[in-house]
Amino acid sequence: SLRTLFGAGDEDITNWFRHWVNEGFQPLEKILASSAETGTFCHGDAPSLADICLAAQIASNARFGVDLTPYPTIARINAACMALPAFQKAAPQNQLDAE
Prior knowledge:
Blueprint (H helix, E strand, L loop, with lengths): L1 H5 L3 H25 L14 H15 L8 H11 L2 H6 L9
């Protein structure tokens, strides 16, 4: 972990996480916003593995306060995912071991 290997504190870890999420989300937003294949979900109007991966990443982002405002397409797709019962049931906060 960053804390163990580099002595990083909470603020450093949060900044590191946000930096790398933004590095990935900037090109992803451009691709999703410009692709004719993007529909309600990442690749059309039915959820796919891409949406599952995106929702999992965004759930992790919430722990570090990542702002999705610069990524309206990603935010819209995530909202569509989270409107589905299967995604709601799979959300980390709804797991038996959630704290």
